[in-house]
C-alpha cells in the first residue's frame, strides 16, 4: 500500500496549523495551571508573585483550611442541585418546544416561535425583573434557580434546526402506525437528537454553575447561597478570611510558608469552584461539532 505523498505547501500549512493550535491551547490552559500551582505553593512566595511556571514549597493546607470555611459545603450542594435540576428542565423543555415548532399543524406556530425568539433581543431590565420575581414569590425560594431558565430561545433554535435535519419519513411512518406526538417525540426524535441535547446540557450546566447574580438579588437566606455567590463574597472578604483562618490555626501550627494570605484564599476558592465544570466539560466536548453543525447547512 503506497503512502500518500504530501506536497511542500501542504506540509508547511499543517505545520503552521499545529503550531497555532498548540499555542492557542497553551494560552487557554495556562491560566488554570497558574491558578493551581499557586494554590499548592508556598503562600509567602505566592504573595510575592514568585510562582510562575512551576510550584515551590508544595503543600495542601490551602485546600484543607478553605474547605473548612463556614457555608462552603452547603453552597456546593445548592449549586449542584440547581445545576442538575435546572439543566434537566432546560434540556427537556428546549427539546420538546424545538420539536413542536417543527410541526406545521401546530396552532399559531409562527407567532409563538417568533414570540419566543424576540425575547433574545429585548428585556425589561433588572428592576422589572426583580419586581416580577418578588411578586411570584421567588425570593428566598430555590425555584428561582429553575423556573426562569426553563425556556431558553437559543437552545430551542438549536434543537429545532437539528430536528429539521432528521428525515420526515421516520415521523410520518410512525404516524401511519398510529403513534401520537408524544410517542414520536420520546421514541423516535429524542434518541436521534442526543448530540445536540448533550451540547445544550453543557451550555446550560455551565450557565447554571457560574450564575451568582440571581442569588445576589433574590436570596437573603444563607441556606440558598450558591458556591459562586460564596466565592464572590469570599473574594471581596479575602483579607478578613485569611485572618480568621490564621487565627483558627493557632500559634503552634503557624508556618510562614503555609500561612493563609488574601491571595491564597482567593486562588484556592477560585480553583475549588472552577474544578467541577472543568472535569465535566471535556467529556461532552465530542458532541459539540456534531451537535452544532448538523442541520446548520442544508442542501
3D structure, described in words:
This protein is mainly α and 299 residues long. The chain has a single domain (60-293), classed as MetI-like fold. The protein is 67% helix and 0% strand. It is built from 15 helices and no strands. The protein has helices at 8-39, 43-47, 61-66, 72-100, 109-118, 126-135, 153-164, 168-176, 181-192, 194-210, 213-218, 227-236, 238-249, 262-284, 286-293. The protein is globular. The protein starts with 7 loop residues before the first helix and ends in a 6-residue tail after the last helix. Residues 295-299 have low confidence and may be disordered.
- What Rg is obtained from the alpha carbons, in whole angstroms? 25 Å
Q: Helix and strand succession?
A: HHHHHHHHHHHHHHH
User: How many structurally independent domains?
Assistant: 1
Mean pLDDT: 79
Structural class: mainly alpha
Our measurement of the CA-to-CA distance between the termini, rounded to an integer number of angstroms, reads 36 Å
CATH-wise, what's the superfamily?
A: MetI-like
CATH topology tier name: MetI-like fold
DSSP strand tally:
0
Number of discrete helical segments? 15
Main beta sheet: none
Secondary structure: elements and pairs:
Elements: H1 8-39, H2 43-47, H3 61-66, H4 72-100, H5 109-118, H6 126-135, H7 153-164, H8 168-176, H9 181-192, H10 194-210, H11 213-218, H12 227-236, H13 238-249, H14 262-284, H15 286-293
Write a short abstract of this structure.
The protein is mainly α and 299 residues long. 67% of the residues lie in helices and 0% in strands.
